[in-house]
Amino acid sequence: MGGRRGRGCALRECARIVRPGGPVFAAAISRWAARIDGMLRERIYLKYPAALDLINEIDRTGMLPPLHEGAFTAFCHRPGEFREEIEEAGLEVVDLVSVEGPAFILGDLDARMADPVDRPIALEVARAIERVSELVGFGPHLIATGIR
Questions:
Q1: What are the residue ranges spanned by the domains of the chain?
Q2: What are the φ/ψ torsions at residue 144 (nearest 5 degrees)?
Q3: What predicted TM-score, i.e. pTM, was given to this entire model?
Q4: How do beta strands 63-64 and 92-98 pair?
Q5: pLDDT in tens, 88-109
């Protein structure tokens, strides 16, 4: 069982087995991860030119097909869809954040995180906007906390 039905089944099982008031953490790939992370940051089209023909369909449907033999496939959520699936499973979404925020696009992120002046700035930016509803989907990964 796959797709939305499979995701819903997994979330309902989490809701069933967690104690009342207990948290369920769910992770998702953002709808725009393929475009922002894959196309813009990683430039996957250079190694996998087929990505150029697929990107609009990925944006439209959320279905990320394998780009090469052995590659993964995934469903890429819009933040609202992710929230909706969790709520339909019987969980109250108490938090939904962008994991990396915009820092993931920085080519020198490792150097900034190692620098005692740059590190707190990068972390503060991530914290300041990780829950801004208009920006949550910008980062490639989402984490939601649901409570039974």
A1: 3-9+23-147
A2: -120, 145
A3: 0.89
A4: unpaired
A5: 999 999 999 998 888 888 889 9
